[in-house]
Amino acid sequence: MDLALWIIAGLLAVAFLAGGTIKLSLSKEKLAAAPGGGWVEDFSAGAVKAIGVLEVLAAVGLILPAVLGVAPVLVPLAAVGVMLLMVGAMITHLRRREAKVIVANLAYLALAGFVAWGRFGPESFTG
Questions:
Q1: Which helix (H) or strand (E) is 24 found in, with range?
Q2: pLDDT at 123
Q3: Which helix (H) or strand (E) holds 60?
Q4: Could you give the CA distance from residue 53 to residue 33 in angstroms, rounded to a whole number?
Q5: Per residue in 40-62, pLDDT tens?
Q6: Contact partners, residue 68, CB within 8 Å, separation at least 6
Q7: Three-class DSSP category at 37
Q8: Which parts of the chain span the membrane according to its record (predicted)?
Q9: Residues 63-71: what's their mean pLDDT?
Q10: How far apart are CA 127 and CA 72, in angstroms?
Q11: pLDDT band at residue 126 under the 50/70/90 scheme
């Protein structure tokens, strides 16, 4: 199970690092023009950048503490942070009636929940 947790945390980290980097590097207008990017119209440019920062921090938190062996409890906490981001994303998409996008949010939520459960519980780095 440890290997599965590493793989899932790695995949989540790649996805959130990419998503966060895109949010930080592109303007709000370019994000809005992208497929599925209409949600940015509900937020200020600063809020979109803040979401990007949170996504990058989540990506780093899913991997780096365990790899370095420094405060590995941050891994499940980062997974909980991803879960909170996904709940917020689902609320936003529900308000915009974008049901198809919610499927991806649910998948990320479930994967992050698995990492949080596994790293807080049976495959804890501190146990």
A1: helix 2-25
A2: 84
A3: helix 45-68
A4: 21
A5: 999 999 999 999 999 999 999 99
A6: none
A7: coil
A8: 6-26, 47-68, 74-94, 101-120
A9: 94
A10: 11
A11: low
* Residue showing tokens 């915009």: 96
pTM of the model: 0.92
Sign of CA dihedral 100, 82, 60, 10: negative
Check the CA dihedral 103-15-12-4 and report its sign: positive
How many helices (H) and strands (E) in the chain? Answer: 5, 0
Alpha carbons within 13 angstroms on the beta-carbon side of residue 80 total 9
Residue 101, Cβ neighbours under 10 Å: how many?
Answer: 17
**What whole-number distance in Å separates Cα of residue 104 and Cα of residue 58?**
17
- For residue 117, what are its two tokens? 């459960």
